[in-house]
Amino acid sequence: MKDSQEALQRLMEAAEQAKIELSTLTESAINLPFLMTKVIESDREDEENKPASVIINLERKLTKSKFEDLCSGLIKRCRIPITRALKDAKLKPTEMDQTILVGGSTRIPAVQKLVQDLLGKEPNQSVNPDEVVAIGAAVRGGVLGGEVKGILLIDVTPLSLGIKQLVCQLYQKMKLNVWLKMLKKMR
Question: How much is the pTM?
Fold first, then answer.
């Protein structure tokens, strides 16, 4: 299958659709007729024996529990940025009023459960996770373009930045979560 880009694309689209369905259902049917053809060569040596091709169809059922099992490693890795964000903000989960999940994968019930377990409260589900991303980008564009007033957006660097010299000494020039606007003032 790795040689057929079309088959891989169809498989990726079916997997995405199954992921979406499993956010609300307990089982999803993946049905891809005529996914690809495979050439089968025979060992016989006669002139009439030409390579035959076989059509490969894919029909599978995927349960929510199997999907969550397949994704468990990725979901567990979500703990790292959540705990890091709390540490960087010097906050405890009890000091947060609410959590709004952003992005399509936050519709996965196992992700929602992880966030609820880590933060001790159910995430706010009153907004569409995809629309939040688009609205944020639109607001950012409006602020940068001067069309939106009265909103303060603060850019910060997600990493500490510095210069490393040959003696393996790192001279830190900018610490984690420093306002980028401060850089302009430092110059």
Answer: 0.69
